[in-house]
Amino acid sequence: MYEVGLPTYRNGPGGTVEPAQYRVWVRAPQHVRPLDGVSYDDVPVEYLEPPSLVKRGLCPRR
């Protein structure tokens, strides 16, 4: 899974428009794939720690 920040705009105070960022989790390759000819060597990557044994045993609640 990858957390992706998408640039967007939102309404600000007094009818102004200001830049914002919408963050979303996506799964690869189900939702995204690399573009041919594009280098991703400079994209920052931060790995998440694996969940604890307790969290893995309980599974996500729905």
Q: How would you sum up this structure, described in words?
A:
The two termini are 19 Å apart. With 62 residues, the chain is mainly β. It has a two-stranded antiparallel ribbon.
Main attributes of the structure:
two-stranded antiparallel sheet, mainly beta, 10% helix, 1 helix, 32% strand, 62 residues, single chain
Widest beta sheet: strand line-up: 1-2
Please estimate the helix content: under 10%
Distance between the termini: 19 Å
Backbone shape: flat
Which helices and strands occur, and which strands form pairs?
Blueprint: E1 2-11, E2 17-26, H1 53-58
Antiparallel strand pairs: 1-2
Summarize the structure.
With 62 residues, the protein is mainly beta.
